[in-house]
Design a protein that fits this description.
The complex is a heterodimer of chains A (83) and B (231). By secondary structure, chain A is of the alpha+beta class. Chain A has one domain (2-78): Phosphoribosylformylglycinamidine synthase subunit PurS (Mth169, Chain: A), CATH 3.30.1280. Helix content of chain A is 34%, strand content 27%. Chain A is built from two helices and three strands; from the N terminus they run E-H-E-H-E. In chain A, strands 2-1-3 form a three-stranded antiparallel beta sheet, with helices on one face. The radius of gyration of chain A is 16 Å and the shape is elongated. The termini of chain A are close together. Chain B is an alpha/beta fold and 231 residues long. Classes of the chains: A alpha+beta (83), B alpha/beta (231). The interface between A and B is medium-sized, with 10 and 19 residues.
Chain lengths: 83, 231
């Protein structure tokens, strides 16, 4: 099983990278609201059970992948061989 | 010499950069300072620990996020829990925040630029082992050099820290977008301090300002007192 973890800056947290990109997009003529920048972590898991895989990735997020003070995370699970 | 030299261990992580400067500055201020490799699961007999500046593990993921799991950090956490003095400078501050030994977190500077210059700081709290040599409200000139020095805590956490006197150093000029211009915080017990500016780079007047010695000499003095009481 594979997991995709999306880590985002929490709402209200200053995101200077997002602001810079937002400004650049406006300069290119795009009409946009906020741009926010997070990160994506793709993981290959040995686990084949969905619930167990999700629990393991949640522990990874709590311990290392996200800092709960400033970041939220979202976990997507995929069977191997699927998109 | 009547008083012994306190033993100060400077933890060296892969990617540490200011470890040797810290050892030099502490030795210049009459400590017995030496490096401790991060893979050591047990600390030698120490009176204080310094986590130096640099870019441990390349600042990958978030600065300090990986170094906090170094074997030595478990020992540092234990040392701190027993009341041992721990000072984190720059990357050391980031590691202490990630490890949960200090409140808040360090984020990219609001300017998105690496900032490297002397800055003016105000000492907000002299009632810590790291500021005994300072006067309340004293201004210190100490350099910062970081890309991620913007300290963040939400308003509730900040208000708690402020009311308990845990905000020890504040920038006296705009520097990086830190919440309420916070430059250094101490833990609730008062034995762990983190700061973004580099006192070890401001000990010899030849380098522009000797003000870093106010912080480091306070640490050395406090460590010496503890060593004497333990003997």
């Amino acid at each position: 099983m594979r997991a995709t973890v999306l880590v985002r800056p929490k709402e209200g947290i200053l995101d200077p990278q997002g602001e810079a990109v937002e400004g650049a997009l406006r300069q290119l003529g795009f009409s946009i609201g906020d741009a926010r920048i997070g990160r994506v972590v793709d993981l290959q898991l040995d686990e084949s059970d969905q619930a167990a895989a999700r629990a393991a990735v949640e522990r990874m997020c709590e311990q290392l992948l996200a800092n709960p003070l400033i970041e939220s995370y979202e976990i997507e699970l995929h069977e191997n061989g699927t998109a | 010499m009547s008083s012994p030299q306190p033993r100060v261990g400077v933890i060296q992580f892969p990617g540490s950069q200011d470890d040797r400067d810290a050892v030099w500055a502490l030795a210049a201020l009459d400590a017995e300072a030496f490096l401790v490799w991060h893979a050591e699961a047990e600390l030698p007999d120490l009176d204080a620990v310094v986590l130096p500046g640099g870019f441990s593990y390349g600042d990958y993921l978030r600065c300090g996020a990986i170094a906090r799991f170094s074997p030595a950090m478990a020992a540092v956490a234990e040392f701190a829990a027993d009341g041992g003095l721990v000072l984190g400078i720059c990357n050391g501050f980031q590691i202490l925040c990630e490890a949960g030994l200090l409140p808040g977190v360090l984020r990219p500077n609001a300017s998105l630029t690496f900032t490297c210059r002397d800055v003016r700081l105000r000492v907000e709290c002299v009632d810590t082992p790291f500021t005994t040599r300072c006067a309340s409200g004293q201004e210190l000139v100490i350099p910062v050099k970081n890309g991620e020095g913007c300290w963040f805590a939400d308003e509730n956490l900040y208000a708690e820290l402020e009311s308990r006197g845990q905000i020890v150093l504040r920038y006296a000029e705009p520097v990086n977008g830190s919440v309420h211009d916070v430059a250094g915080v101490v833990n609730e017990q008062g034995n762990v301090l983190g700061l973004m500016p580099h006192p070890e780079h401001a000990v010899d007047p030849l380098l522009g300002s000797p003000d870093g010695a106010f912080i480091l000499a306070s640490l050395v003095e406090s460590a010496r007192e503890r060593a004497l009481h333990l003997v």
